Amino acid sequence: MLAEISDVPVKIKIISSQQPSDVLLTGNHQLATWEKWLEVSRITSYFLGSLLFLLGSIYFYPKYSVMWSGKAILYGSWGFVIGCLYFFAGANLDFIQTIRYNHGTQLRQVLRAFNALLNHMAASIFILGALYFLPSWYPKSPELGCWAFIIGCILFCVAAVVEVLFICFTHENPRASGFRFSNIFCLGAVAAFETFLGALCFIIGSWYYLPKYINLVDEGTYYMNKAITFYVLGSMCFIANSCALMPGVYRTINSAQKRCDGKSSHQ
């Protein structure tokens, strides 16, 4: 049985596709206090993680690993684990910011989202690698920790390249398009370069820390020292990356405060 169709006109409310999203924020969004702390926490997580990588790497040197009755290597491996957890936290905070601020052309949005995804994947794999550097886990699969670091660092290298592309496609006008090479002369590009260099050092260090090198009778200690040296250099590059990001975070927080003060003075 068909329902009777009424002749009474019905008003249909059409929701425009251009309606602003409650999640995606505009570039001139005024940061609340918790958002400022989120920005600071994001950089702090990367800085502390890098610092723990550095300290942990130093304790893996053969001459330092025997300290504290041989427990120095245990402390070093836990430095790796906690450092990776800090990196994972930073990557998650980056992902949140990507969701909330991903504006511009479609290519620019894809590059930023892909960069955040790569960093998140790399940080997740790093945690697995760090766990297999623990003395209680290492004997189960001596190569797994190294290969996890190698794979994670390859993702970090790709993410750094994508970040540079993102910077080159970013303009003052968020709707402008095109590649601009001159954009790389900024601290963001320096941070990406430090990430690439640090990840490359970790790849080399992890390669030489594989059992086929460090278990050699005559040259094992040499390769172990070589591997740890690359870990130390890579950690220093990661620290430099965090430092290069700090001025940008400071400007973001400070500019948001100035906009807020400006509006208050006109009220």
UniProtKB/TrEMBL annotation:
List, alphabetically, the Pfam families matched: YrhK
Q: Which residues form the YrhK domain?
A: 38-99, 109-165
Q: What sections of the protein cross the membrane?
A: 43-61, 73-95, 116-135, 147-169, 181-208, 228-250
> What InterPro entries has UniProt attached to this entry?
YrhK_domain
Record's keyword terms, sorted: Membrane, Transmembrane, Transmembrane helix
**Domain of life, source organism:** Eukaryota
Protein name per its UniProtKB record: Unnamed protein product
